[in-house]
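If your schedule permits, I should be very grateful for your opinion on a structural question. Kindly check, if you would, that the fold set down in the tokens agrees with what the sequence suggests. Thank you for your consideration; the sequence and its tokens are set out here:
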Amino acid sequence: MKPDTEAIQARAEKATPGPWKSTNSVIMAYGKCDTCDCDVLLGVAKTYETTDYDQDGRIFELQGNRKSNANFIAYARQDIPALLAYIAELEAERQWVPVSERLPEEGQRVDVVTKSWGREINYRFTNDEFTYGEDFFVAIKGEITHWMPTPLPPLPEVPK
């Protein structure tokens, strides 16, 4: 299932700008000072539960990989926007482009949608024409309505 990238993007944009850093028990968010552009501490988040106490009234810290968890959370501020940008780039590559808006680059291999035959694969855009096959069948002007880049073939399997 596709994640709700718009909601993730909105949360990322509302978060304190990075870089974030982590120690054993806190995550610190740094940013730029409004007056002198120096680095300042903008926020601190504890990496342990402050509402759970042991029998002596001391704060009960999370067990296990506390520092690894803190690093994961701290890097999320940089990682999530990068992943969202990558997802958007991949999704843009797989969108049908109307020929009325833009044509492919010279020599680019594309899949097309035609008025008469529907989806056709592996055309090449050359000299302002869509061509197909070894005989370079040229599509009739106005027949092709949309195009998208032809996906790359699968990588060969590496023997185990």
Remarks:
- The longest strand covers residues 118-126.
- Residues 97-149 form one domain.
- The chain has two domains: 5-93, 97-149.
- The chain is about 25% helix and 30% strand.
